[in-house]
């Protein structure tokens, strides 16, 4: 890199590290103790000016990745409901409200979570395939929001979905027409010209 007559060369190093930590929780609702595993990945970088400290920069990248992972595991939480009463703990509620909005009430359907397996509920929701069922599913299992977000959007915007499909179909029809034209121009016509030109 250069500018104003000054030349500057460098190399950057990146490193990644993944790990997990066991979280011990005492439920605020029923005093049940339970555990879950927190998984995190972290990255770190190092910089070697004029390629003079490559080894040091590589080492710093690894050290920073490790430090960032340690911090992520120390500070991180996941929303995992109590297996006994179904509620999310207060810090988990705050996390879910940050992700889904302040109107989210993660503990509204707490008792349902302990009686109906999520896979069974998901099969019933897919079979019904209605906006009301998907919305209720997210209320019951807010951590599954990403699973249903696209389908909820499709049900809320049917016209846009039809337009999207029509555009996709038009694109592939156009692509097919262009491919057919290329075949005719560059393969069929030259072959015919060669055959009839004899």
Quick overview:
With 198 residues, the protein is α+β, with helices and mostly antiparallel strands. Helix content is 55%, strand content 19%.
For the terminal residues, how far apart are their CA atoms? 61 Å
Sheet with the most strands: spatial strand order? 1-2
Strand content: 15-25%
Segments where pLDDT lies below 50 for 5+ residues? none
Q: What does the main sheet amount to?
A: 2 strands, antiparallel
Order of SSEs, N→C? EEEEHHHHHHH
Structure description:
It contains 7 helices and 4 strands, in the order E-E-E-E-H-H-H-H-H-H-H. Helices cover 55% and strands 19% of the residues. It is an alpha+beta fold. It has helices at residues 54-75, 90-100, 110-113, 118-128, 131-140, 145-156, 158-196, and strands at residues 2-3, 6-7, 10-26, 33-49. It is flat. Helix 5 (131-140) packs antiparallel against helix 6 (145-156). The protein has a two-stranded antiparallel sheet. A two-stranded antiparallel sheet has the order 3-4. Among the domains are: 9-75, no CATH class; 90-156, no CATH class.
Describe the SSE topology:
Elements: E1 2-3, E2 6-7, E3 10-26, E4 33-49, H1 54-75, H2 90-100, H3 110-113, H4 118-128, H5 131-140, H6 145-156, H7 158-196
Antiparallel strand pairs: 1-2, 3-4
Notable traits:
198 residues, alpha+beta, two-stranded antiparallel sheet, two-stranded antiparallel ribbon, 7 helices, 55% helix, flat
């Amino acid at each position: 890199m250069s500018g104003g007559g000054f030349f500057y060369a460098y190399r950057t190093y990146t490193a990644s590290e993944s790990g997990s930590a066991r979280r011990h929780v005492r439920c605020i609702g029923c005093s049940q103790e339970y555990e879950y595993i927190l998984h995190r990945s972290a990255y770190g970088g190092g910089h070697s000016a004029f390629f003079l400290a490559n080894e040091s920069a590589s080492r710093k990248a690894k050290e920073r990745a490790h430090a960032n992972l340690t911090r992520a595991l120390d500070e991180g939480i996941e929303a995992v409901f109590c297996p006994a009463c179904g509620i999310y703990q207060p810090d988990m509620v705050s996390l879910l409200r940050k992700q889904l909005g302040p109107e989210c009430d993660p503990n509204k359907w707490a008792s349902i979570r302990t009686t109906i397996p999520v896979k069974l509920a998901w099969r019933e929701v897919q079979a019904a395939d209605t906006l009301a069922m998907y919305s209720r599913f997210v209320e019951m299992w807010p951590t599954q929001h990403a699973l249903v977000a696209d389908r909820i959007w499709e049900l809320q915007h049917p016209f846009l979905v039809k337009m999207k499909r029509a555009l996709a179909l038009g694109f592939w029809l156009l692509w097919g027409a262009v491919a057919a034209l290329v075949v005719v121009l560059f393969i069929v016509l030259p072959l015919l010209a060669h055959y009839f030109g004899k």
